[in-house]
Amino acid sequence: MERLQKVIAASGITSRRKAEELIKDGKVKVNGKVITELGTKVNSNDRIEVNNKIIEKEQKEYYLLNKPRGVITSTSDDKNRKTVIELINTNSRIYPVGRLDYDTTGALLLTNDGDFANIIMHPSNNLEKVYLAKLEGIIKGEQINTLKNGIVLDNKKIKPSRVKLKKVDSNTNKSLVEITIHEGLNHQVKRMFESVGFHVEKLTRKQIGFFDIKDLKSGEYRRLTPKEIQKVYSYKDK
Questions:
Q1: In the chain, which residue ranges form alpha helices assigned H by DSSP?
Q2: C-alpha span between 33 and 16 (Å, rounded)
Q3: Rounded to whole angstroms, how far apart are CA atoms 127 and 124?
Q4: Domains in the chain, ordered, with CATH?
């Protein structure tokens, strides 16, 4: 069951606020009956009419994208930069779940299912996010231990699940580090490494929970399977 105004807005014909006005003005019918109460809930079998026209219910869509560098995580951009929405071949009004920086690549989920998005982003579900960071300079065990023990960002102590040194190249003076976090603070991974004196030259999110991009090239995407969607919804019942 979903709120009537939410279903109307999801159909794409108007905003949720305008949908609420239409309901109050008696312009909406459910199964032939005029509805004026905003708290009314409907299910997928109900026939909804707005201004005597039956609305088409939007099908839920779910995608996993390997976001390329130089694409903005937004539904639109006032600077005319390419958005992640433009990479997905759909007519539905999907949106990204969370965000990745303009210059960060990797795993990004997109959907038009608000409940699904909320489950993914809700802190209580503790979904791990795995990043691979290319650093300028050679990181040492001391700095890695500092990260493991936790640092303070935005007045909160942040402690990653794992920090693993993958590779050191003394010729190019670079380090490759895998770091796993639960939070989603703004520029979190970059700020964590900056706190121990390292600039992140390149950052890729390899994984969100059980979603990984190992079979997707940069810019490629795939639809989620029913089993994956069901698994996400199972977090709601925990």
A1: 4-10, 16-24, 114-121, 141-149, 188-194, 226-234
A2: 20
A3: 8
A4: 2-54 (3.10.290.10), 62-124+213-237 (3.30.70.580), 128-208 (3.30.70.1560)
Tell the residue number behind the tokens 């303070």, with chain if given.
152
- The per-residue b/e assignment along 194-233, b for 16 or more CB within 10 angstroms, e otherwise, is eebebebeebbbbbbbebbbeebeeeebeebeeeebeebe
CA–CA separation, 186 vs 156, rounded Å?
A: 13
pLDDT in 10s for each residue of the chain, 238 residues:
788 998 888 777 888 899 999 999 999 999 999 999 998 999 878 999 999 999 887 788 999 999 999 999 999 999 999 999 999 999 888 999 999 999 999 999 999 988 899 999 988 888 999 999 999 999 999 999 999 999 999 999 999 999 999 999 999 999 999 999 998 889 999 999 999 999 999 999 999 999 999 999 999 999 999 999 999 988 876 6
Tracing tokens 């493991």 back to the chain, one arrives at 148
- Annotated catalytic sites, by residue? 101
